[in-house]
Amino acid sequence: TTAHTACAKWLGCTSPLKCKPMFEQTFKNIDDILHKDAGCTSELDYTEQSSWLLFLKYLDALEADKATEAVLEGRDYQFILSEPYRWAAWAAPKMSGQGADGKIDHNAAMTGDDLKGFVNAKLFPYLAGFKQRASGPQTIEYKIGEVFGEITNKIQSGYNLRDVIDRIDELRFG
C-alpha cells in the first residue's frame, strides 16, 4: 500500500529495487496477521498498529547508534526510554553466546497474554506519561507522550502481536 511504501522510505530504503520486495512482503505478512485479529478491522488499523511498532524499533536502533557514538567520543548517553521499555528488552530479546547470530531468544520473549498485558498495562502508559514528564512541547519526549496518549494497541491476540513483532524485527534500518 501507499502507507507501506512511505514506511519503506522512512526506514531508509535507498534502493527501491533491493528493498521494495523485502518491505512489500514483510508488510503483506503483517497485514495478513492483522487481518485475522479481531481488534484490527481495516487497513487504517493495520497501518496504525504497524506504525507504532515500527517507530519503537526505529527508536531503539537510533538510540543504540547514538549510544555507540557517545562511547566512541568518550561521553555518556542518556537513553530516552528506560531499559525495560526498549525494543531489545521487551519485544525482541536476543540470544547471547556463540552461534546466536542476533536471533530472538524465544525463552525470554513474551508472547500471548503476557505480551499483550505488558503492552497495554505497562508500555503504553509509560510512553503516554512522557507528555507530562517532558521539559517542553518541542521535545521528542513530549511528542512520544502525545502520540502514545492518543493511540491504543488494537491487536487483541498476544500471539498475533508476537508474530507482527517478529516480522518487524527482521527489518533493518539504514
Report how far the terminal alpha carbons are from each other.
21 Å
Computed over alpha carbons, the radius of gyration is 16 Å
Succession of helices and strands: HHHHHHHH
Average pLDDT, all residues: 89
User: Helical element count?
Assistant: 8
> Mind summarizing the main beta sheet?
none
Structural class: mainly alpha
Low-pLDDT sequence parts: none
Helix content: 55-70%
Overall shape: globular
Strand content: under 5%
The number of E-state strands comes to: 0
Description:
This protein has helices at 2-10, 16-35, 43-72, 87-90, 112-128, 130-133, 140-150, 158-169. With 174 residues, the chain is mainly alpha-helical. Helix 2 (16-35) runs antiparallel to helix 8, helix 5 (112-128) packs across helix 7 and helix 5 (112-128) packs across helix 8 (158-169). The radius of gyration is 16 Å and the shape is globular. The two termini are 21 Å apart.
How does the SSE layout of this entry go?
Layout: H1 2-10, H2 16-35, H3 43-72, H4 87-90, H5 112-128, H6 130-133, H7 140-150, H8 158-169
Helix pairs in contact: 2-3, 2-8, 3-8, 5-7, 5-8
